Amino acid sequence: MSLTVAFGGKGGTGKTTLAGLLIRYMIEKGMKPVLAVDADSNANLNEVLGVSLNETLSQAREMMKKDVPTGMTKDIFMEMKMEQALVEGDGFDLIAMGQPEGPGCYCAANNLLAGLLDRLMKNYQYLVIDNEAGMEHFSRLTQKDVDVLVLVSDPSRRGLTAACRISELVSSLPMRVGKKVLVVNQVQEPLSWPEEVVKVFSNGNIYTVPADPLLAQFDMQGKPTSQLPSDSQVVHAAWALFDKILQEIKAG
Q: PANTHER family given for it (predicted)?
C-alpha cells in the first residue's frame, strides 16, 4: 500500500501538529520510511518532529542564481543541494520548501526542483505534506496525486470558512484528490456545523479533536508535540481518526 496525505488549513489551527502525529502513527504502524514535505513557507514541521533543519529548497533556489561552482551544471548543483536539505529522522525523512519566490525569474530553478522532488517522492511509499493555507505552493512544486486531503480548522467560523474555501480551491487545481476530510481541532464542547460546512464535507468526513492543555504545555516548553504521551487526549483522538481514514482507504 502507498499513501499520500496532504494537510491544509489556516495558520494556528494545529495542522502541523496533526501532520507530525500522523508521521508518528505511520511509523508505529510499520508504514515507513515516510517522506515528510514541509511546504509551508513558515516551516516548523521539523520542530514538531524534534529534528533540526539544515536548509530549505528555497535557499537552494536562491543559490542557483549566483553560487553554482564553476564546472558544475545547475541540475547537478540542485540535486546536491536537495540531498543536503534532506533531514534523516527515525523512520522518516524531512525536506522543507521554504519561502516563496522573491523578485526575479525562478522558472529554471522551479522546474529543476519540481523534477527532483517528483523523483525523490517516488522513492517513498508514504508521503505526508504540510501545506501553507492556500495550497498554491503545493500545486506548483509537488506531485499532483493525493490520496487524502486533511483540512484542519479550529471551531471558529473563520477557520471553518477557510477550510471550505481551500477545498473549493483544490477542486479547481490540476490534481487528483481521493478523499477530503475536515478535522476541527481544539474542540471544547459539542458543535453544530454551518450549512456551508455540511455542503462541502459530508458528516462522515468531519472529525473533531478535543482541546488538550498538555498540547499547549509541550508547545510552551519547546517539546516536540509529535512526542505527546499515548494517553493524551489529542493522541487518542488522532489515532482514532487515522484508523478510520486508513480503513476507508483500504476498503476503497
A: CARBON-MONOXIDE DEHYDROGENASE ACCESSORY PROTEIN, SEPTUM SITE-DETERMINING PROTEIN MIND HOMOLOG, CHLOROPLASTIC-RELATED
Q: What's at 182, amino acid-wise? A: L
- Specify the higher pLDDT residue, 64 or 208: 208
The 10s digit of each residue's pLDDT in 147-199 is: 999 999 999 999 999 899 888 888 887 778 899 999 999 999 888 888 999 99
Tell me if 209 sits within 8 A of 182, measured CB to CB: no
Cell numbers representing residue 201 in the block: 464535507
- CATH number of the domain that 59 lies in? 3.40.50.300
Contacts of residue 202, Cβ cutoff 8 Å, sequence gap at least 6: none
Q: How far apart are CA 237 and CA 182, in angstroms?
A: 14
Q: What pLDDT is recorded for position 76?
A: 87
Provide the residue type at 105 as one letter. C
pLDDT of residue 75: 82
pLDDT at 107: 58
Are the C-beta atoms of 183 and 215 separated by less than 8 Å?
Answer: no
Q: Is the pLDDT of residue 88 over 90?
A: yes
Set of cell numbers at residue 205: 468526513
Q: Concatenate the DSSP letters of all residues of 69-133 into one string.
A: PTT--HHHHHHHHHHHHPEE-SSEEEEE--S---SS--HHHHHHHHHHHHHHHTT-SEEEEEE-T
CA distance 46 to 15: 13
- Across the chain, what does the average pLDDT equal? 86
DSSP track, 141-210: HS-SEEEEEEEEE-SSHHHHHHHHHHHHHHHHSS-EEEEEEEEEEEE-S-----HHHHHHS-GGGEEEEE
Task: Tell me the residue range of the domain where 162 lies.
Answer: 3-251
pTM of the model: 0.90
Tell me how far apart the alpha carbons of residues 166 and 146 are, in angstroms, rounded to a whole number: 15
